[in-house]
Write the structure tokens for this entry.
Amino acid sequence: MDGKFCTVEDLKQQAITIKLYDNSVWANLGDGRFIDRQTKKIRPVSLLYRSTRTVVGAGNCVIAKRKKKREGLLFLPRPYKLKRS
């Protein structure tokens, strides 16, 4: 992955959902906060950013990923559509 960094602001503006390293999925509320789909907890994006593994944007496409916890969150050069199971 050699894309540009995905920032907190990018998450606020472009993310529909994010998946964290604990496998929880959070949905964007559109105001800088995300809600956990299972527990209904609401957290600001700034608290979730460092744990974000995958970012899904419009059209159900994965637009950014973090390979390892200590690496940067990078936009994918070629976003791909999520498969439905």
